[in-house]
């Protein structure tokens, strides 16, 4: 191919590549990153909060750490000429989602929110729903119990207010905060977890109650299934309200949404 033609093609290619930002930290964000990595229509950057010291290796350019609120994200979107944002953050990461809605509105950048369905209780489940980790600690009651905490490390300090219980907390990184319940043992592990291992953990630790978020998805569901089998109560912390853009239900739907917006913006719509 003559030099001129290949340069022109490269220019057209660059012009039609859409710059996108994925707000990540979930299995779905990683799955979306995998699909986008090989897709020449998009130039995507993945953003992580930096909650774990050794996040999974990602196939896309990745930035780590907060943007600095709505103002910081707005500046980032402008500086990097981002044309679309996919919010694929955790169902409990409500602040990041609120910031994404506000910043995308200010910059007139389309926003899709990749949501994960909640777990629904089934016959045999003994769920008690509460609105926060502090309420979960209170719901454990006055009698000392053996409690499995399946929460983020930043949520553990709430259980310092209920020091009479024995806690086993599964976390990815050890927590830094000083204020923790006195009788707390850590298990460091990263999902997915399987049913047999979850059942064994609950039996071996003689767990009497589980505290969990309603994360949804399959990676951390086996503990809920094991609790049902063993007749154990689950104190379920309900999801916060999460501001959202256009809802998409899967990484494939997110890609279809991106492709649609890419085509619209090329037509100047
Ligand atoms: P958050 O409360 O929504 O976010 C707090 C701040 O962290 C945001 O305002 C933002 O800082 C920064 N941030 C969050 N997600 C980001 C991302 N993808 N890229 C860049 N910055 C990001 O969320 P959170 O504090 O991370 O977590 C809230 C709850 O979600 C916790 O209960 C946690 O256990 C759960 N969770 C979070 C993650 C995760 O990857 N974030 C994963 C699993 C579970 P700026 O305002 O400075 O931009």
Description:
- This protein has 269 residues and is an alpha/beta fold.
- The chain is built from 8 helices and 12 strands.
- The chain has helices at 3-15, 27-37, 69-79, 94-107, 133-139, 195-204, 222-230, 251-266; strands at residues 18-23, 42-48, 62-64, 84-87, 111-114, 126-130, 146-150, 166-171, 184-188, 209-213, 233-237, 246-248.
- The strands form 2 sheets. A 6-stranded parallel sheet has the order 3-2-1-4-5-12, sandwiched between helices. A 6-stranded parallel sheet has the order 6-11-10-7-8-9.
- Helix 2 links the parallel strand 1 (18-23) and strand 2 (42-48).
- It is elongated and about 65 Å long.
- The model is unreliable at 1-14 (pLDDT under 50).
Number of helices: 8
Q: How would you state the average pLDDT, rounded?
A: 91
Distance between the termini: 34 Å
Counting helices, strands and paired strands, the structural category is alpha/beta
Largest sheet report: 6 strands, parallel
**Rg over CA atoms:** 22 Å
Helicity level: 25-40%
User: In order across it, which strands form the biggest sheet?
Assistant: 3-2-1-4-5-12
Order of helices and strands: HEHEEHEHEEHEEEHEHEEH
The counted number of beta strands is: 12
Regions with pLDDT < 50 over 5+ consecutive residues? 1-14
Which molecules other than protein and nucleic acid are bound? NADP nicotinamide-adenine-dinucleotide phosphate
- How would the global form be characterised? elongated
Strand content: 15-25%
List keywords for this structure.
six-stranded parallel sheet, single chain, 269 residues, 12 strands, 22% strand
């Amino acid at each position: 191919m003559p030099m001129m033609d290949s340069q022109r093609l490269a220019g057209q290619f660059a012009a039609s590549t859409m710059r996108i930002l994925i707000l990540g930290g979930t299995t779905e964000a990683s799955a979306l990153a995998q699909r986008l990595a090989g897709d020449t229509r998009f130039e995507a950057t993945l953003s992580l909060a930096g909650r774990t010291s050794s996040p999974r290796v990602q196939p896309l350019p990745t930035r780590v750490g907060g943007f600095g609120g709505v103002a910081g994200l707005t500046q980032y979107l402008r500086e990097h000429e981002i044309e679309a944002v996919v919010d694929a953050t955790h169902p409990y990461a409500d602040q990041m989602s609120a910031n994404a809605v506000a910043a995308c509105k200010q910059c007139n950048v389309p926003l899709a929110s990749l949501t994960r369905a909640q777990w629904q209780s089934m016959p045999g489940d003994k769920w008690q729903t509460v609105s926060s980790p502090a309420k979960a600690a209170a719901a454990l009651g006055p009698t000392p119990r053996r409690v499995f905490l399946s929460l983020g490390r930043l949520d553990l300090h709430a259980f310092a207010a209920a020091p009479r219980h024995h806690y086993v907390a599964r976390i990815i990184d050890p927590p830094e905060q000083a204020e923790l319940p006195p009788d707390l043992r850590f298990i460091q592990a990263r999902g997915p977890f399987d049913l047999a291992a979850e059942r064994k953990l609950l039996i071996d630790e003689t767990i009497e109650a589980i505290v969990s978020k309603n994360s949804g998805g399959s990676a951390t569901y086996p503990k809920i299934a094991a609790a049902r089998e063993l007749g154990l109560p689950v104190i379920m912390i309900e999801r916060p309200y999460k501001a959202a853009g256009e809802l998409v239900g899967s990484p494939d739907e997110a890609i279809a949404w991106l492709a649609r917006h890419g085509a619209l913006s090329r037509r100047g719509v």
